Amino acid sequence: MPSDSELTPGLVIPTLRYRDAPSAIDWLCQAFGFEKHMVIPGEDGSIIHAQLTLGNGMIMLGSVRDEEQRDYDRLITQPDDVGGGNTQAAYIEIEDIDAHYERAKAAGAKIVIDIADQDHGGRLYTCRDPEGHVWNFGSYNPWQS
For residue 130, what pLDDT is reported? Predict the structure, then answer.
């Protein structure tokens, strides 16, 4: 087994599916401050693939593909299909967390855990986007603790 120093470093890039991916892209940029890095539209108004950046982070997303049922799409369930449940959620470190919180609220993010100081340091809030995906934003940077 290779040692930790022999392993190739990797990037963690969350991936999501949205029923209305074009609207989700616009909303994620407005509410959370993401920027479009690459957007590949489909012929039917769907999004085949999109990459959004925030600082040095990235997410990838695309439209739900009910008809095609590609292998990957069969693995992903939308929050509204399971009563709003999520099995994973991204944590994104934000420098000015209070301003980010206000921006997200103004854009209509559903705040599910209000902004508060955390015992381990920093401030954190948790919200849902319009399709129910859970997002955590905080000022705590675990690499600097």
Answer: 97
106 or 4, which is more confident: 106
Please tell me the distance from the alpha carbon of residue 77 to that of residue 71, in angstroms, as a whole number: 13
Q: Please count the CA atoms within 13 angstroms of the CA of 111 that sit on its side-chain side.
A: 15
The torsion angle over the Cα atoms of residues 81, 84, 87 and 91, rounded to 10 degrees, is 130
- The parent domain of residue 115 ranges over 89-145
What mean pLDDT is predicted for residues 48-56?
96
**pTM greater than 0.85:** yes
69 and 106 inside one domain = no
Residue that has been written with the tokens 């599910």 in this structure: 112
Whether 68 has a pLDDT exceeding 60, the answer reads no
CB distance 50 to 25 below 8 Å: yes
Do 50 and 94 lie in one domain? The reply is: no
